[in-house]
């Protein structure tokens, strides 16, 4: 009897399954996902000026310096890139969806550093605009955007640009990306920037052989101080400038590197060097390295590499000093690195031409 009941139960379960199968097979299928709305068409993006070059910036620089109340004498050592602050940079667009919010991004090429750019990001937002009912917009990059993204400059504690940190974008053709609310609504254009002079092409001829022992690598002129009995050689094309500390400078638009020839009373070479640089208008003097040396004739000397601030810009130089009585005779060659790179080999070569008459 028990087996009979079990058989009845199995038959009942199979019957129920056979009855439900057609119902399940005929159940309605889930509806397909809705088709995403089409991406709105992107409009155009135009930048003006389409090219910013050195000629434009140098033409504006004197007026910019005057507006900033900087002395006229400072213009030759100012980097032309600073004048971009005075250039109105405008963006226009048309054909965008009505009332679309549009962001303008500067795409940063691989290998170009940009502070604040997170890993995986390739652009920084430099301007924003809202299209009107006709799909047109107009906007421009503000001063903070120019300082942060074009000059890559820091800020002082009183929220003014820290000119010692100016590091303009390298010369090149950049991409501007205009993006609407929908990430797919994108338009691009190119923008040519020459905030710094492009690198000079490599010389066609092989580099000249190094100078023979005792021979200078430059055509020299000579300064002679009869009172203190010494002389120094310097590049013949450098010019002389009136100064309390005798000063020669490179006859080039940047007017650096510079050569100081000075005599200071001090207990140590480092103290004399600091006095000399401060007397020439430098501040924040820091001796990076100092060592004992000797002139070609065996006269004991001291040398140092130093860093300082000169007229608001970071400077670096090489100095040589010889103690005579209670004075140090100093020969210092330095540069504003933003304008002309530090060249220790050449600066040391100039300083070591110091000679004393027998």
Task: Summarize the structure in words.
By secondary structure, this protein is of the alpha+beta class. The chain folds into two domains: 46-193, Immunoglobulin-like (Sandwich); 220-356, Mog1/PsbP, alpha/beta/alpha sandwich (Protein Transport Mog1p, Chain A, 3-Layer(aba) Sandwich). The chain has five helices and 18 strands. Strand 16 and strand 17 form a beta hairpin. The longest helix is centred in the first third of the chain and has 24 residues, at 2-25. It starts with a helix and ends with a strand.
Q: Order of SSEs, N→C? A: HEEHEEEEHEEEEEEEHEEEEHE
Derived from helix and strand composition plus strand pairing, the structural class reads alpha+beta
Residue fraction in strands: 25-35%
Biggest sheet, spatial arrangement of strands: 11-12-13-17-16-15-14
Reported for the largest beta sheet, the result is: 7 strands, antiparallel
Question: Rg from C-alpha positions?
Answer: 35 Å
Overall body shape:
elongated
- How many β-strand stretches? 18
What are the segments in which pLDDT stays under 50 over at least 5 consecutive residues?
1-8, 10-26
Q: Quick one: CATH class of the largest domain?
A: Mainly Beta
Give the N-to-C terminal Cα separation.
138 Å
Examine the secondary-structure arrangement and name the CATH architecture of the largest domain: Sandwich
**Oligomeric state as shown:** single chain
What is the tally of helical segments? 5
* Total count of domains: 2
User: Taking all residues together, what is the mean pLDDT?
Assistant: 83
Fraction of residues in helix: 10-25%
**CATH fold description of the largest domain:** Immunoglobulin-like
């Amino acid at each position: 009897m028990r087996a009979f009941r079990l058989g009845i139960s199995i038959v009942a379960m199979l019957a129920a399954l056979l009855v439900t199968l057609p119902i399940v097979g005929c159940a309605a299928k889930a509806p397909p996902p809705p088709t995403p709305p089409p991406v709105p068409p992107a409009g155009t993006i135009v930048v003006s000026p389409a090219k910013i070059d050195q000629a434009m910036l140098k033409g504006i620089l004197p007026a910019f310096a005057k507006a900033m109340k900087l002395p006229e004498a400072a213009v030759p050592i100012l980097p032309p890139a600073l004048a971009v602050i005075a250039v109105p940079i405008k963006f226009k667009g048309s054909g965008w969806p009505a009332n679309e919010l549009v962001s303008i991004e500067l795409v940063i090429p691989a290998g170009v550093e940009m502070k604040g750019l997170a890993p995986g990001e390739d652009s920084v937002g430099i301007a924003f605009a809202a299209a009107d009912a006709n799909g047109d917009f107009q906007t421009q990059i503000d001063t903070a955007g120019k300082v942060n993204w074009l000059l890559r400059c820091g800020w002082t504690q009183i929220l003014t640009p820290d000119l010692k940190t100016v590091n303009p974008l390298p010369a090149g053709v950049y991409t501007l990306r205009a993006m609407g609310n929908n990430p797919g609504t994108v338009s691009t254009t190119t923008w040519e920037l020459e905030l710094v002079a492009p690198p000079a092409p490599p010389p066609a001829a092989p580099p000249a052989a190094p100078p023979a022992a005792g021979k200078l690598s430059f055509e020299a002129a000579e300064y002679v101080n009869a009172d203190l009995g010494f002389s120094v050689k310097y590049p013949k094309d450098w010019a002389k400038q009136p100064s309390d500390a005798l000063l020669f400078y490179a006859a080039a638009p940047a007017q650096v590197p510079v050569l100081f020839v000075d005599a200071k009373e001090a207990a140590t070479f480092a103290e004399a060097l600091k006095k000399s640089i401060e007397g020439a208008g430098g501040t924040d003097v820091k001796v990076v390295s100092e060592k004992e040396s000797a002139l070609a004739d065996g006269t004991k000397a001291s040398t140092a590499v130093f860093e300082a601030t000169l007229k608001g810009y970071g400077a670096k130089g090489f100095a040589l000093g010889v103690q005579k009585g209670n004075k140090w005779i100093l020969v210092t060659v330095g540069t504003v690195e933003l304008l002309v790179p530090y060249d220790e080999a050449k600066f040391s070569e100039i300083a070591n031409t110091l000679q004393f008459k027998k």
